[in-house]
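4.2 Preliminary Data

To establish feasibility before requesting continued support, the project team ran the inverse folding procedure on a target of 504 residues. The structure was first converted into the token representation described in Section 3, and no sequence information of any kind was made available to the design step. The complete token record follows.
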């Protein structure tokens, strides 16, 4: 090959590289997600009031090992309160997410290609977010300055993606979200709640004094118990947050999530409507539709019954397939199976029910659902869940429901190796929660996974108009504080051995 030919080859190669770089730059520019115009956040100072950190009408404290964050005000102000009150754990969680991504995709060019593809595919995802929530996300971005992760994406663009992480993760074949289990049990008519349990004027202190044995006190109540398996990194479990959200003119609600993530995957509103979401796989994911967490949030903010929540959920076009379980204070339960481009399928139940990650309506015939059944633990967990429900006390109380979430046996009742994915408690859950919709109480797991205490949050009290955390006897150390004890595995040496040893 002569010099002239070499020069032509080199020139052609150089032009091809420049063309590819130019095309990528053009795609990145075209896939920008700009922040909404004219969004501003208050400049209120952060103040300390004993164990309570305040920012305007919003505040934060710890209840046991769980962050408790109350959000009030206009959308942007609520968003800024999230990132200003929770800045340090938000940084830790986001760093853990990128480390998990790097571990899962160790080849840097492949990671960049996935990022570029996701950026292009979901370039219009912000347009599907209702305007008030878009402003709230803009407030999160404005409050998170200086932002240590702008090299990944600009602040608002990145937080939009972080709020849509459920949809984005489920659009990939090996999603870390195919592993959740939920139990629902209806109330028992023969054991109605006593008047003091339902009366709004009874304080948590009085309730705790009268309740004594929480298993006995909660028998006969309508309950939903769920394990949320999301393997994105330890900080998402360690730094879990219960958000108490009051939006002007809407129903207040509580959501169990992580720092920076107010969108709903598990929670209950003041009316006793509880919702959780499970990953599923059917149909073809698409970039158009409302992100799942905002769909659930719309239902929380408006629904007073299961029927109303189902109507709202069924009205939304979605991006990915998934399963939503809804129940209310009457115990009426609906399993809403949704996928892109098809009408929601609703299964109704007033009997005890276990739900995992496969579809049971029309989507059950989808090849992707068949693959979930064949290659994941959804069927063994469902079989074990059915067996657990059959063996629960009649009626069960909250301690029994926590025990169901901590079950580590196979369908036949034989113990499984620790960490076995066929177990309901595979020691991977980011959070566990038992929601007593009769008395509007949530019991939320402390780290690690489902082994820590399940701490009680009384939403009738915490979401009441005019609630002041300064006068709350249910705070830890107060006479109204309550928690289900930690799993013995946490202190008998098995947890430390499991943590240090090889995983299944």
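Position-by-position output of the design step:
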């Amino acid at each position: 090959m002569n010099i002239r030919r070499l020069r032509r080859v080199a020139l052609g190669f150089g032009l091809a590289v420049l063309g590819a770089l130019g095309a990528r730059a053009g795609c990145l520019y075209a896939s920008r997600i700009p922040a909404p115009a004219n969004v501003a956040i208050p400049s209120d100072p952060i103040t300390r009031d004993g164990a309570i950190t305040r920012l305007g009408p919003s505040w934060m404290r710890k209840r046991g090992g769980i962050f408790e964050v109350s959000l009030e005000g206009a959308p942007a102000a609520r968003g800024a309160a999230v990132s200003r009150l929770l800045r340090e754990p938000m940084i830790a969680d986001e760093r853990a997410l990128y480390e998990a991504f790097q571990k899962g995709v160790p080849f840097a060019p492949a990671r960049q290609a996935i990022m570029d593809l996701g950026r292009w595919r979901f370039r219009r995802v912000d347009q599907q977010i209702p305007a008030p929530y878009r402003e709230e996300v803009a407030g999160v971005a404005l409050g998170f300055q200086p932002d240590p992760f702008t090299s990944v994406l600009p602040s608002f663009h990145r937080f939009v993606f972080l709020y849509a992480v459920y949809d984005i993760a489920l659009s990939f074949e090996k999603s870390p979200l195919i592993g959740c289990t939920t139990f629902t049990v209806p109330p028992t008519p023969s054991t109605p709640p006593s008047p003091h349990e339902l009366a709004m004027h009874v304080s948590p202190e009085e309730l705790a004094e009268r309740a004594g044995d929480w298993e006995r006190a909660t028998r006969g109540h309508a309950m939903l118990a769920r394990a949320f398996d999301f393997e994105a990194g330890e900080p998402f479990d360690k730094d879990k947050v219960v958000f108490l959200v009051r939006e002007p003119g809407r129903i207040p609600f509580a959501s169990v999530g992580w720092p920076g993530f107010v969108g709903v995957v598990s929670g209950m509103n003041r009316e006793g409507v509880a919702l959780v979401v499970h990953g599923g796989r059917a149909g073809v994911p698409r970039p158009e539709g409302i992100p799942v967490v905002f769909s659930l949030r719309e239902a929380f903010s408006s629904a007073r019954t299961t029927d109303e929540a189902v109507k709202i959920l069924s009205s939304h076009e979605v991006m990915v397939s998934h399963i939503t379980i809804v129940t209310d204070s009457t115990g009426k339960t609906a399993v809403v199976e949704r996928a892109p481009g098809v009408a929601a399928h609703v299964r109704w139940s007033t009997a005890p029910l276990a739900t995992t990650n496969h579809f049971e309506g029309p989507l059950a015939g989808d090849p992707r659902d068949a693959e979930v059944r064949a290659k994941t633990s959804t069927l063994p967990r469902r079989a074990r869940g059915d067996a657990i429900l059959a063996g629960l006390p009649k009626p069960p109380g909250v301690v029994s429901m926590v025990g169901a979430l901590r079950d580590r046996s196979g369908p036949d009742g034989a113990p499984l190796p620790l960490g076995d994915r066929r177990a309901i408690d595979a020691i991977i859950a980011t959070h566990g929660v038992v929601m007593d919709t009769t008395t509007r109480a949530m019991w939320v797991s402390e780290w690690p996974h489902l082994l820590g205490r399940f701490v009680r949050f009384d939403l009738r009290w915490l979401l009441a108009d005019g609630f002041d955390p300064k006068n709350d006897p249910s705070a830890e150390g107060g006479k109204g504080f309550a928690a289900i004890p930690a799993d013995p595995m946490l202190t008998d040496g098995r947890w430390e051995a499991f943590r240090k040893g090889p995983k299944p």
